[in-house]
Amino acid sequence: MLTLSAGSDPAGAYNGQRRKRKRPPRGARCGNAASRSRLGSRNLAGASCQQIGALLLLLASAATARGQADFLSSAELHQAGLVKSWQLQLPLAAGQQVADSYLVDDQIYVTTQDGFVYAVDAATGALRWLNRVTRGGYRILRPCHAGERVIFITPAELTQFGRYDGGPIRQFLFRFPAGSPPVSDGTFFYVGGINRRVYAFPLDWEFEAWKAGAAGQVLGQPALFGGHLFFASEGGDIYSCVAGNKQREWAVQVRGSVTADLVVDDNGVYVACRDRSLYLFDSATGGRRWRARLSSPLYEPPFATPDVAYQFSADDGLVAIHTGAVPSEARIRWRLPEGRMALAVDPRFVYVLSRDQKLLVVRSADGKVQHSVAATGFALGMPSPGGSGIFLASTDGRLFCARQRGAALVAARDVRRALGQAAPLAEPAAAPSAVASAPAAPPAAARAPAGAQLVRRAIIGGKSKVTKQFLSGQPAAP
Q1: Are 168 and 233 contained in the same domain?
Q2: What integer best gives the mean pLDDT of the chain?
Q3: Measured in Å, how far apart are the chain's first and last C-alpha atoms?
Q4: What is the phi/psi pair of residue 358, to 5°?
Q5: Does 440 share its domain with 316?
Q6: Are residues 79 and 158 in the same domain?
Q7: In angstroms, rounded to a whole number, what is the distance separating the alpha carbons of residues 159 and 153?
Q8: Of 101, 301, 304, 406, which is the most buried if we count CB atoms within 10 A?
Q9: 182 within domain boundaries
Q10: Containing structural domain, residue 128
């Protein structure tokens, strides 16, 4: 059930949508019959259609949403200078629980332990679609966007959906065990492997465009910046290469394993390492700019801003680290032992999810807690570097978005606009032959073609060679 901030009109939003929009073709949001028949036991519908039906019943009674109790206290939020923007109870099936939640650009993806994904518009809380990504029991890693597509990775396969409508686009099995979340520049997507390699795939092609070796398993999400791809390995090596052709620019080595996602911005490449250190490297040369030593191994990436990087350490809590040129003894600005995750920042405050499930308003200058809001059950946070909101999730399917007082309220037209982006797919063409020659070269555009369908095909053809020169030369120690 979706509840909007005071002054919005949830009933008008959904009732208006039902009056003005035609009902989509049956199964359009959760896989049409032709697509399901092709996928067999791997279809994306099944139980999801029943859950979508339950959702429609909930939306039909959206007029009662005003009476739903607030997930976080409105009075406590007001004292903290915040206000509820929206909240949503996902229609989880019996026994279903939320495993992870990710904010990717303007969309929230909530994954469950049984392989489903809910896509929610971050601005309005409108539930756009629900699909099943895997039945293999794999954890669904953080997805990435490629134009109007969203790409999901499990160790065994790739699945692409329409970003706004959830329409199936493509699915294929990997010939290697994938280990990292994907990242995309709109033409290729890049993924690290447990087999000590990084791969670049065109969006519409089952063959890799190139692959490059690494000193260990690649488990953290690579990063793209300025036409370059940055990735790190469990062996402690960090690499920079040209994204289009894997030409190596530089490689450095740290003293511990790197399994956290990389973060790159104008300051450089942030590397959270298991040697209890957060590093910043120059993105152009690989030179080390600084090293901040903490008290425990680092398994998560920092929340990076132009002036401060917020890093979680199990022994230190949340640590604020200066990103500029300061003496080494002044590198760490403050520590917040109860802090678990930085969610958003403004010029004066950083908004923090605590270990004991509270939303803290912390002064960015000295780390003093100014306000505390009880967030019982909300153990999952979604950092928002762009400052679009403060997003929380719970394992029982509750989502909550808070914003600063004075921010624009969510209106009925905003919900209609968010749902209006989910145009139904056309009927797919006839099933392709299971025995095929090599597919045609993929188009460069990232937009899903009209009538696209999810096609799962065995990979055929030969393997490209790993460029041996990529690993030539001893990586320079920082």
Answers
A1: no
A2: 81
A3: 52
A4: -130, 150
A5: yes
A6: yes
A7: 7
A8: 304
A9: no
A10: 2-173+300-462
Give the helix ranges, DSSP H, for 5-105.
Answer: 10-20, 33-39, 47-60, 74-79
User: What sign has the CA pseudo-torsion 312, 297, 270, 294?
Assistant: positive
- Tell me, yes or no, whether 37 and 161 share the same domain: yes
Q: Decide if pLDDT at 411 tops 80.
A: yes
Has residue 469 been placed in a domain?
no
Q: Which of 247, 275, 299 is the last residue of a domain?
A: 299
Amino acid at 164: Y
Check which CATH number belongs to the domain holding 230 and give it.
2.40.128.630
How does pLDDT run across 302-355, given as a tens digit for each residue? Answer: 999 999 999 999 999 999 999 999 999 999 999 999 999 999 999 999 999 999
Domain match, 242 and 314 both: no
**Same structural domain, 168 and 203:** no
> Which residue type is seen at 103?
L
Q: Are residues 325 and 285 part of one domain? A: no
Q: How far is CA 453 from the centre of its chain?
A: 23
| DSSP result, 418-470 | HHHT-PPPPPP-PPPPSS--PPPPPPS--SPPTT----EE---S-PPPP-GGG
Dist. CA 216–CA 198, nearest whole Å: 11
Cα dist from 334 to 113, 189, 197, 320, 339, whole Å: 36, 37, 38, 5, 11
pLDDT tens column, 224-248: 999 999 999 999 999 999 999 999 9
Chain centroid offset of residue 441 CA: 29
Q: Is there a domain that residue 183 lies in?
A: no
How large is the angle between the packed helices 412-420 and 10-20, nearest 10 degrees?
40
Residues 295 and 322 both lie in one domain? no
Q: Domain total for the chain?
A: 2
Tell whether the torsion through CA atoms of 287, 291, 297 and 302 is positive or negative.
negative
- Tell me the DSSP string of 209-252: SEEEE-SS---SPPEEETTEEEEE-TTSEEEEEETTT--EEEEE
pLDDT confidence band for 385 (50 / 70 / 90)? confident
Residue 186 lies in a domain: no
Q: Which secondary-structure segment (H or E) carries 414?
A: helix 412-420
Cβ atoms within 10 Å, residue 422 = 22
Q: What is the CA 377 to chain-centroid distance, rounded?
A: 21
Measured CA to CA in angstroms, residue 129 lies from 7, 132, 139 at distances of 26, 10, 19
